[in-house]
Amino acid sequence: MMIVLSRQEVPLATLEPLVKAQLIEEWATSVKKQKVEVYLPRFTIEQEIDLKDALKGVGITEVFSQSADLTAMSDNKELYLSKAVHKSILEVNEEGSEAAAASGMIAISRMAVLYPQIIVDHPFLFLVRNRIKGTIIFMGRVMNPEAMNPSVHDFEEL
Fold it and tell me: Is residue 60 pLDDT above 50, yes or no?
């Protein structure tokens, strides 16, 4: 999981158009291991997309008509598709991120501050990326993260 957090004074809308595949690849290949404390709010993103128009747009139309032949899938000769939906959910919490087969980790600590702190308390972009192929699996933005005060929350050490 990659978090793109601008400086507080730079609006996310200014940063978003600059985030392209080539830049993401550069970030991923130039990252250096360093211990940091990351304070990231819990969030869940859900999206449901109706695929019917997209499928019809690429020529898959017959399965949506009442004369569709889906007997290879079912003995019911009256069967046809009325809807095709894709739903995705990304949940990020103290245990990491969970979405399909993608996972990541949030490093947080109860110890005294020994490492640089990254406090995600203003709008940010996130993406879940396959490290081997570089494919972006999920990408989105969080516009209203809950403000996090590290001294108030009881964080678990990972």
Answer: yes
> The domain spanning residue 22 has which CATH number?
2.30.39.10
The pLDDT tens digits of the residues spanning 99-126 come to 543 333 344 444 555 778 888 888 999 8
Residue 104 located in a structural domain:
yes
**Same structural domain for residues 10 and 55?**
no
Spatial separation of the C-alpha atoms in residues 63 and 35, rounded to whole Å: 53
The string of pLDDT tens digits covering residues 26-44 is: 888 888 888 888 888 888 8
Q: What is the CB neighbour count within 10 angstroms for residue 21?
A: 9
119 and 59 in one domain? no
DSSP classification of residue 114: -
Q: Which domain holds residue 119?
A: 2-42+93-147
Which residues in 106-134 are b (16+ Cβ under 10 Å) and which e?
bbbbeeeeeeeeebbbbbbbbbbbeeeee
In eight-state DSSP terms, residue 97 is E
